[in-house]
Amino acid sequence: MKSLRDVFAPTACILAIVAGALWYARDPNFNECWLRFSYRGGSPAKSLPKISVNRLDWSADGRTLLALSRGDVGPDGPLVVHDLAGGRFPVEIDDPQPASIALSPDGRDVLVGLSHGQLLRIRLESQHRECLLELPRSIGFPALAVSPDGRLAAAGASDGRIFMLSLRDGAPRLVLQGSPSSVSNLRFSLDARRLVSAVTDGSVDIWDLARGRRDQTFAAHPEPAMAAIFLPGDRQIMTAGMDDTVRIWNIADGREEWRGCFDCRGVTTLALSPDGKTVAWSGQCRKIIAWDLQFSRKKFEIATPALAVLQLAYSPDGKSLAAGGVDATIRLYDAQTGLERPGLEAATSL
Q1: Co-location of 58 and 26 in the same domain
Q2: What is the pTM of this model?
């Protein structure tokens, strides 16, 4: 006869695992919650590394690259600026888990969206911090974008609102109200007159910033939409989602013009080359795909050792593609050939 310990021990173990999963899921800003664990023979296929690079942003001159990491980032903290000529230095911040970042085009200021209701601007030279927005602690800022001319910032909140701010004086200019789901990604059009937002309920919105209204809504993906970008000419957008598809939409009539599925088990990031000819994407897979927009075909595919790629960013000169993900390294690739260049250490290990 089995003892009570034999009967209840497995049940208790299962309940503990479920409780742990629910503990993580309770946080709407936990941006690794989409990582799916695959099993082979009843055991995890691979454990996750202790450091992940979640966000990357270049300065307009391509000299500096800002990285936001999570996990055991060491004494440098989660924010590190990589000066490609002069080394690396940390950005001082109290929050160990900021939700999003954006670098001003001149490379002097960093915008940091916190997971507990604050949007900060940090001057890199002096490390002076200024709070631009403060919301209830239950609301975070998982998405940030700076306009190409450096005049405007957009901050997407976990309650679906998008705040437009002037970076000249830090004053809020406009509040856009979308769906109540969390904003996952924001991008300005090249002329900064429009904004596209990807939302975790799968929708994608286009906003007219001059009129302060939503121009178009796309039911883009049946699972969370993770990224959206304007394509050259601003007549189309490309979206990516956790349904493992990349899609192109006609802005004028809302029609889906193209769809691709590339076995990424969820596409998490899109990056458009500065010349507008190539778009790169990746997700929960060990590959990065560079796509030729003119001929609608794969330009090349990069095999990457990272378990998942969370962020891709082309350098402003179009020569390099930076990749960050579930790995303690920022990898740099030749944007024309896909060949790997010497990478950057994302964080100092503990």
Answers
A1: no
A2: 0.84
